[in-house]
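Retry 2 of 3 after timeout on previous attempt. Resubmitting structure tokens to design endpoint.
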């Protein structure tokens, strides 16, 4: 598991994760491009909601950021073309100009480097040193290149490539002007972004409803409506093998199979009062949902306090969990339908006339029907999630219930959605107007990335200029594919939240809090199922035995998701230890399963 070094701002207020993603659109060109091109522009694909994220606000800020980036890229393209027209091979010198010599890193330097960069301070002397070094490199490289080119006996096309004509003077002047203009352009852009972050994306100023207005294209308005519906919907249409689009690999998953047998009384006799009461999966789901809601609202947990309705007394550990969860008070328990995108082409429940993408919400009666008869890729899950740390950490549990004959099946899948990247949190280090020492740091930071921005500008500007035409052609091809392919894939390929996932956690207690929530939900899910079956006269002996086995084997980690060592259960069983492999913030360790 990777953990962050040094100081990093962390989310702590509701809605922080949406704000970080909106800031990411301005701080990271690639993120804004992927949000617009992979999520917004893909009109035929389903949208994937993310707990605690306002998808519409993030997309609208991404569109505004693209406009800002495109204005910078157009100006940088002018600098690029000036050098390309006078001496094309001089473009290779751009990287050398903006390579700032660095002192050997001290311990303090390494600590500073580990922090989010925006918001750092720089003295006037350091600024003069950095700017002077870059200017000196520019002059030296220009003189050396000009003298070298003019001394070579070149003419014609080769002379033009190297700028050797007229003693290299036009090439040198064009190079000096282009590099200076490019640096000024990047500084101007960074100042605009800094002002925007300080005035609109701090915790005190941010309001998702005040996101910039989108462009007037009709398809953009329609897609934003579809994203809003997905945010409030109950359907996930997935593409490919795994239904958990938008989530990292499952932390753990475990099944329970419970035979439905009549309970025995104290004398060992079967329940004779008409036998056990029958039930349906919707009945069980409703009971579990109600119990989890009760837990979320339990603020006065005291050790040993009896509860109403015949509930067992809370142990001290359970009471601690209840108080922990009640203090957070934002547990979400919702029905969610998962269906594969290639299987809904002729399913009227998911098709809409007003949009290409599938429906994001099914009515309650349709959800209940799916609970009663789950078939193929169409499955119901009871989703439980609790956004923590401003939505940066989201522990999620998916519960699936089914009855087959006289058997109850329960499957639990645990996920942990980790924080967004540290650099997107940099907005929390900004306060008030831009101070002079922070402005100097921004000037130096611009030196470090001007070269890369200059080289990439023509390609980015060209792609942006052809975006509308490319989108129209793309959608025409998609519509044709829908008409010709009965198994066209409507599934979502990615999610906005997944695009920003950090490879590391930012605070030790982020993982601790998430582990407590996952442990609590698992424990009380089993308790609710037992209560439900006991109240209806069904035998829970096998359920209790399986629960104890699971607890002993460590599949359910009470109080934390520990990495389980070698274990073997049963005769001739073997156990293999696998070292954990870090797969991102959402996957802090291996799936806790015994190998038999």
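Retry 2 succeeded. Sequence:
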């Amino acid at each position: 598991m990777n953990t962050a070094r040094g100081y990093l701002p962390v989310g702590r207020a509701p809605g922080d994760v949406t704000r970080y993603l909106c800031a990411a659109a301005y701080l990271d060109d690639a993120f804004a491009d992927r949000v617009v091109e992979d999520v917004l522009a893909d009109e035929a694909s389903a949208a994937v909601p993310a707990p605690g994220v306002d998808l519409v606000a993030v997309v609208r800020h991404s569109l505004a950021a693209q406009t800002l980036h495109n204005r910078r890229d157009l100006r940088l393209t002018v600098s690029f073309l000036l050098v390309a027209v006078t001496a094309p091979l001089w473009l290779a010198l751009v990287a050398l100009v903006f390579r700032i010599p660095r002192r050997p890193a001290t311990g303090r330097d390494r600590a500073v480097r580990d922090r989010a960069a925006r918001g750092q301070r720089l003295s006037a002397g350091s600024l003069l040193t950095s700017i002077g070094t870059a200017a000196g490199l520019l002059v030296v490289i220009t003189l050396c290149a000009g003298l070298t080119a003019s001394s070579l006996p070149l003419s014609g096309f080769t002379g033009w490539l190297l700028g050797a004509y007229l003693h290299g003077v036009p090439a040198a002047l064009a190079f000096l002007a282009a590099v200076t203009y490019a640096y000024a352009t990047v500084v101007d852009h960074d100042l605009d972004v800094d002002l925007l972050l300080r005035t609109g994306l701090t915790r005190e100023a941010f309001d998702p409803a005040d996101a910039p207005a989108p462009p007037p294209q009709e398809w953009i308005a329609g897609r934003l409506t579809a994203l809003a519906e997905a945010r409030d919907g109950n359907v996930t249409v997935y593409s490919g093998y795994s239904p958990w689009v938008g989530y990292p690999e499952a932390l753990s998953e475990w099944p329970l199979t419970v035979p439905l047998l009549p309970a025995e009384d104290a004398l060992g006799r079967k329940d004779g009062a008409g036998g056990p009461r029958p039930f349906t999966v919707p009945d069980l789901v409703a009971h579990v949902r109600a119990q989890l809601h009760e837990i979320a609202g339990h603020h006065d947990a005291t050790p040993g306090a009896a509860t109403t309705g015949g509930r067992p007394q809370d142990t001290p550990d359970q009471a601690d969990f209840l108080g922990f969860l009640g203090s957070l008070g934002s547990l979400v328990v919702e029905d969610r339908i998962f269906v594969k995108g290639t299987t809904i082409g002729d399913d009227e429940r998911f098709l809409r006339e007003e949009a290409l993408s599938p429906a994001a919400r099914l009515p309650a009666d349709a959800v209940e029907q799916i609970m009663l008869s789950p078939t193929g890729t169409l499955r119901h899950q009871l989703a439980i999630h609790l956004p923590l740390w401003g939505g940066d950490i989201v522990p999620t549990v998916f519960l699936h219930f089914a009855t087959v004959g006289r058997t109850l099946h329960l499957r639990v899948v645990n996920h942990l959605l980790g924080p967004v990247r540290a650099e997107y949190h940099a907005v929390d280090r900004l306060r008030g107007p831009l101070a002079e020492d922070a402005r100097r740091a921004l000037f130096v930071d611009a030196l470090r990335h001007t070269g890369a921005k200059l080289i990439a500008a023509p390609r980015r500007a060209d792609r942006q200029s052809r975006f509308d035409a490319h989108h129209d052609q793309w959608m025409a091809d998609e519509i044709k594919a829908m008409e010709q392919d009965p198994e066209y894939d409507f599934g979502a390929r990615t999610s906005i939240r997944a695009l920003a996932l950090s490879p590391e956690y930012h605070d030790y207690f982020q993982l601790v809090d998430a582990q407590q929530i996952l442990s609590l939900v698992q424990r009380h899910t089993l308790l609710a199922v037992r209560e439900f079956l006991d109240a209806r006269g069904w035998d829970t002996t096998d359920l209790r035995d399986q629960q104890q086995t699971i607890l002993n084997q460590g599949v359910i980690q009470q109080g934390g998701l520990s990495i389980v060592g070698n274990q073997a259960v049963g005769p001739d069983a073997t156990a293999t230890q696998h070292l954990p492999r870090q797969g991102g913030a959402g996957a802090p360790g291996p799936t806790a399963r015994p190998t038999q």
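Attempt log closed. The beta strands are 235-238, 252-259, 332-340, 379-385, 394-404, 407-417.
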